[in-house]
Structures are given as C-alpha cells and as structure tokens.
C-alpha cells in the first residue's frame, strides 16, 4: 500500500473547520464518509477522469460528481462554452433561447417527453412530478420502491423497512405523518406486491415512481418483465408510470433507461447529466399532462434560477458530446472492463462478490448475490466495503463512500486507468 506517502493533513484541517460551520461539515450527507469511516477528502480540482485533493493526492474518479461528469470533468468544450456564456451574464430570470435548445435536445432524445420543464435539481423535479401526477389523475396515493431515492421531499422519505414501510411512517424527523400517509412502498422487482397495493387501494393510486435501474441502493437492474409489467398494471389501473431518470437519463443510453428497455413511461424526471455539472433538473412527459403546469395550466411550479443560461449551456454542450456516435459503446466497453476485472480480482482473492454494469453505470456488492432489491443489498458486507473503500482511496482510486451507491465512469477514463484501478484492487483485496 502507499500508506506511507498518503497524507491528508490539509483535508483533515479543512474538514475540522467545516464541521464547526456546517452540519456534519458537508453540504450533502453521503459526502461525509459516515458509512465507510474516516474523514472525507477535500477536493481542490478536477479534470478528465481525475481529481486532486488539497494535499495534492491524485485519484482516478468513479463518482464523477455523482454522474454529471460523464464526458470527463471540466471538458474543454464545456468550459469554453461556459466562458462565452458567462460574458453575457449569469442569470436572466426571463426566457432565453438556450432553454429551447436544451428542451429540443431532451424531447428528441427521451421517448416519453413531448414537453419539458426545467428546474434546478433532481429533488425539485421529483417534487413537481408528484404534484402533477396527483393533479392529472385526481388521486393521492403513490407507490415507490424500497431503496429507491427520489430526492429529499417529505413524501418520498418513507423508510425502506417492512413494518414502517407498510405504515408509511416517515424516515426522518420533521416529516409529518400526513406527508407520507399516501406513500405506499413495495420491494423492487416485485410485480405481485405492486398488483396487491392496487387491489388494496382501488382507484386511489395516482401512479408508480421508480428508478428504472436502481443506483441509490447500489446498482440493481430491473429483472426481465418488471418494467413492462409496471407499464401494463398502471395502464390497466388508470394510474401513471413515472421513471425517475435523474441518474439513468443520458447515462445508460442517450434516451435513458426507457430507450434502452423500450418501455415508455407517462412522465420522466431528469437531472445530473443534463446539467453537465451545473445545477439542472427537468421533468417532462406527454403534452396532455405537461399542459397542466402553470402558466399553461393550474398546477403551480416555479423557480427563480430555472433555465439558467450557464446551466443550460453546460447541459447543451454535454449532450452534444454524448450524442456523437460511439459514446455509449465506449462507456459500455470501459465500464465492462472495469467491473468484470473487479469481480475477477475479488473472486481470485477469495471474496464473495456480485455486480454488473449498464453503459457508464456500475456496481459491486460484497455478497454472493444476485441482488434483486434493497433487502438483498442490505445483506452485503458493509464492513468489508468500508475497508475496501479506504484501501482504494490510499491507492489513488476514489469510489463512492457507500455500498448503496452506483459507480460512474466517463468518456475520459482510459484502458490504462482501468488497469491501474484493477492493480490497486488486487493489492487491497489481497489484504482484506
Ligand atoms: C440524485 C437523484 C435524485 C435527486 O437529485 P438532486 O439533484 O440530488 O436533488 C433523485 N432521483 C434520483 C434517481 C437520483 O439519483
């Protein structure tokens, strides 16, 4: 191990100061390394597939700012476009043509989207879509899946545990019972459970929202027939199907999971990649539904900075790079090499592992597998993951600091990066 040369003195100093200034020292919880132990690394700069921390350690990055850095961090085309946009100002609070450009790109790419509304985060997109689905169906209840994350709005913070899940009890203090009383939950990949909820609550369920490929409980792909089954059930029941593609949109395919699996939901939420590293979220769907949004219709939703020219610019440039032929084949090839290599090294060093990938999204559990849902994911060896995470960090590889997070590659990751990562994994896994 490189432990002798691995110094994080400045990171520690800055994080100690941050803890006095901000709750937990961070602006978003998972960054705090709570589930893997140790102190978070404080970044100084990012470029391509790499990050450098304030102590000047360099890492190969598999977080990619949680997905947006799909073309590689600070892609020169994105930076140049942002510099030009910056000269025209940072925010208009009025229509700008760049919104049309990104909207056209999103509509052309994502099968379910005929009209789109831009917001500033994935959380906002999911909140808005919830209001819209309730307004459109004139029903209140929704179904979400255990372990799926749809941002931090009250209605989605329902614990993914059996008893509490059934009661619809909130997952966080401060969330009123009333806010989650209409949130029903089912295990992922379990069509029967969904069918049962519809039978128990006839004509009351507005829709089903899910991550079409789960990334927020670790990487869990849908089983054959699951998405199609949900499409069928929701249609039969007069409910809407919502794909939360904040993570998977423009990530596992240019048109997202819905293009990859050929299942078209009624509404879709987007975020992460479409902002190219700036704060953007979006939701969209059929014109008939989207026309209910103010000012076209009565469903209120607004945003001071929504459609911001810098954010639109980063999104447009990122999608332009992604839609070049071969992008997703390249992501698939490099990510396949990574995950298959990791699984092989882990098995060769005597560890039980399972995992997989879809284009530039991947995951590995320290478990025999297969992992079908959150319950399965929770059986994975979190203590071993924590040690693996720490070891990889010391070897210059930055992984998401939780086993319940998917990993991401970018167009900037090279075969050499993957080989270095696998060599590091061998050293770490042999030591566990
Ligand atoms: C990240 C994420 C969100 C929340 O997006 P923010 O921009 O962090 O608010 C919602 N849904 C899914 C599937 C996500 O991965």
From TrEMBL:
Stored Pfam families: Aminotran_3
Domain of life assignment: Bacteria
CDD domains: OAT_like (cd00610)
InterPro entries recorded: 4pyrrol_synth_GluAld_NH2Trfase, Aminotrans_3, Aminotrans_3_PPA_site, PyrdxlP-dep_Trfase, PyrdxlP-dep_Trfase_major, PyrdxlP-dep_Trfase_small
Keyword Hydrolase on entry: no
Example of a GO biological process term: chlorophyll biosynthetic process
GO molecular function: glutamate-1-semialdehyde 2,1-aminomutase activity; pyridoxal phosphate binding; transaminase activity
Modified positions (N6-(pyridoxal phosphate)lysine) in chain numbering: 272
Top enzyme class: isomerase
This enzyme's EC code(s): 5.4.3.8
Family listed: Belongs to the class-III pyridoxal-phosphate-dependent aminotransferase family. HemL subfamily.
Name of the protein: Glutamate-1-semialdehyde 2,1-aminomutase
């Amino acid at each position: 191990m490189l432990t002798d040369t691995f110094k994080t003195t400045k990171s520690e100093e800055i994080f100690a100061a941050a803890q006095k200034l901000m709750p937990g020292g961070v602006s978003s919880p998972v960054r705090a390394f709570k589930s893997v132990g140790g102190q978070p690394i404080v970044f100084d700069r990012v470029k391509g597939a790499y990050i450098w921390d304030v102590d000047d350690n360099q890492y190969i990055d598999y977080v990619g700012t949680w997905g947006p850095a799909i073309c590689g961090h600070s892609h020169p085309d994105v930076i140049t476009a942002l510099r030009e946009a910056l000269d025209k100002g940072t925010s208009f609070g009025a229509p700008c043509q760049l919104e049309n450009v990104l909207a056209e790109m999103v509509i052309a790419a994502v099968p379910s989207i005929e009209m789109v509304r831009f917001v500033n985060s994935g959380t906002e997109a999911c909140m808005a879509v919830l209001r819209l689905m309730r307004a459109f169906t004139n029903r209140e209840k929704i179904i979400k899946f255990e372990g799926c994350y749809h941002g931090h709005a009250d209605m989605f913070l329902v614990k993914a545990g059996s008893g509490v899940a059934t009661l619809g009890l909130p997952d966080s203090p401060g969330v009123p019972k009333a806010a989650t009383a209409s949130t029903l939950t089912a295990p992922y990949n379990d069509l029967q459970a969904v069918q049962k909820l519809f039978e128990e609550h006839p004509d009351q369920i507005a829709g089903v929202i899910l991550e079409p490929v789960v990334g927020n409980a670790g990487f869990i792909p849908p089983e054959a027939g699951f998405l199609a089954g949900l499409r069928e059930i929701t249609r039969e029941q007069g409910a809407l199907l919502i794909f939360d593609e904040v993570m998977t949109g423009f990530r596992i395919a240019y048109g997202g999971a819905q293009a990859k699996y050929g299942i078209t939901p009624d509404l879709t939420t987007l975020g992460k990649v479409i902002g190219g590293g700036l704060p953007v979220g979006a939701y969209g769907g059929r014109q008939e539904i989207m026309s209910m949004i103010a000012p076209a219709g009565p469903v209120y939703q607004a945003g001071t900075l929504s459609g911001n020219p810098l954010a639109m610019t980063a999104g447009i440039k990122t999608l332009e790079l992604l839609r070049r032929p071969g992008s997703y084949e390249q992501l698939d090839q490099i990510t396949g090499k990574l995950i298959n290599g990791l699984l092989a090294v882990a098995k060769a060093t005597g560890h039980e592992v399972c995992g997989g990938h879809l284009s530039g999204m991947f995951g590995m559990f320290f478990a025999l597998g297969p992992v079908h849902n959150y319950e399965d994911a929770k059986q994975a060896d979190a203590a071993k993951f924590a040690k693996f995470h720490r070891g990889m960090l010391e070897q210059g590889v930055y992984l998401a600091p939780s086993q319940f997070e998917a990993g991401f590659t970018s167009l900037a990751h090279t075969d050499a990066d993957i080989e270095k990562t696998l060599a590091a994994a061998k050293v770490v896994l042999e030591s566990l």
